[in-house]
Amino acid sequence: MAMRLAVVVLCFFSVTASVTRTNVARVPGFDGALPSRLQTGYVTVDEENGAELFYYFIESEGDPGSDPVLLWITGGDRCSVLSALFFEIGPLKLVVEPYNGNLPRLRYHPYTWTKVANLLFVDSPVGAGFSFSRNPRGYDVGDVSASLQLVKFLSEGYLVGNPSTGESIDYDSKVPYAHGVGIISDQLYELLEEGSTAYILGRKCIYVSPRPNYDNIDRRILKEEREVIHHPPPQPSIKCKDYSNYLSYFWANNIATREALGIRKGTVNEWVRCHDKDLPYTQDISSNIKYHRNVTLKAFNRPVVATSAWFDRTILTCGDHDAVVPFLGTQAWVRSLNYPIADDWRAWHLDGQSAGFTIAYGNNLTFATVKDFGVS
Q: Which residues are listed as membrane-spanning (predicted)?
């Protein structure tokens, strides 16, 4: 499964719904004090059905009061946002070592985005990670309703990573991309319609996000918390990139972890990294390109005043080793917006090394590739 990422850049964390919070003093598996303050909690997003989204809020290690707040949502079939926290931009990572039955260990991630920003990770939509609904009807959401629920969290801001549009342009670019990076031959290029791996430099490994097959709906209706792991994922080789995913399952389902994070007993019978169609979800937005157009136009045309001067940029990033939604497709639909070019295609650098390529448009929309980055 590919992980589709969406990030919204905020200036402040604005919560208008019912909220419960837990200040986490220590995290099981991590030795010593946390590098910055961690808060977890629930935000009620559907009062009628008792649906609540679970979040992790991690303060910046710099100046939390003036640094921006970034909301990170992990895409996929109700995939837990722990994927982003542990495997991508958060301050903690799982120590990759053979699982021996004990609580997996954590280590500090020196390249965490909390160096420069406050991070808000949200398990969305309802049913992802530790988010839950008291009434099973609360899980029956779609693209529109899940997006509206997130409005209860925040004001605007705007950055997306490896975005899927819902249109064929994402998938039509797979074969040209695979051909361009030398994965398939000229002959296969002429024959194939689609097909590739997610991260093109990764090993061939088994899929380790368990696919629950519940005999009843105890996942959806609150019951007494159990300590039994019902659906342990298959164990991959420790050489596989997904071995951390395997370890996360045991960390998140540990009782000490749940107590430290303030997870409510009886809400989530068993944490799984991703759900595979076992909960209802309606894809009622066939294409989101028009929404990208609307947001970028509004951002560009908005008067620059003291209360909104910060909302003046749109950034779209793509890993150049992602074969699920290749950057070629994203680049094509960005060009289709027909915005004037302000800074033409060029390399961008980090610490003197090439980190990817970027192009900037006249309405403050920037497209960038990230070198050697794929999907989790």
A: none
Peptide bond into 125 cis (omega under 30): yes
| Nearest residue to 78 via CA among 8, 3, 19, 7 | 3
8 Å CB contact between 216 and 209: no
| Domain residue ranges of the chain, discontinuous segments joined by + | 5-370
Note down pLDDT in tens along the chain; length 376 residues.
334 444 444 434 444 557 889 999 999 999 999 999 999 999 999 999 999 999 999 999 999 999 988 888 887 778 999 999 999 899 999 999 999 989 999 999 999 999 999 999 999 999 999 999 999 999 999 888 888 888 766 644 756 666 676 667 777 777 777 777 777 777 777 776 544 465 555 556 655 554 444 333 344 334 334 344 777 788 888 888 889 999 999 999 999 999 999 999 999 989 999 887 778 888 877 777 777 777 777 655 544 333 333 345 778 888 888 877 888 888 888 888 888 999 999 999 988 888 889 999 877 888 888 887 766 5
Helical spans, DSSP H, in 181-285: 186-191, 243-252, 255-261
Confirm or reject CATH 3.40.50.1820 for domain 5-370, answering yes or no.
Answer: yes
Q: Which residues of 57-89 are buried (b: 16+ CB within 10 A; e: fewer)?
A: bbbbbeeeeebebbbbbbbbbbbbbbbbbbbbb
Burial of 269 (0-12, 13-18, 19+ CB in 10 A): buried
290-314 exposure pattern, b = at least 16 Cβ within 10 A, e = fewer: eebeebbeebbeeeeeeeeeebebb
Separation CA 130–CA 139 (nearest Å): 13
Q: How far is CA 125 from CA 140, 142, 153, 375, in A?
A: 10, 8, 13, 20
CB 253 within 8 A of CB 247: no
In the chain, DSSP finds a helix count (H) and a strand count (E) of 9, 16
CB atoms within 10 A of CB 315: 17
Instruction: Please report the DSSP string for 109-122 in residue order.
Output: -TT-GGGTSEEEEE
Instruction: Say whether 137 sits in a helix, a strand or coil.
Output: helix
Angle made by CA atoms 280, 50, 39, in degrees to the nearest 5? 100
CA atoms within 13 A on the CB side of 114: 25
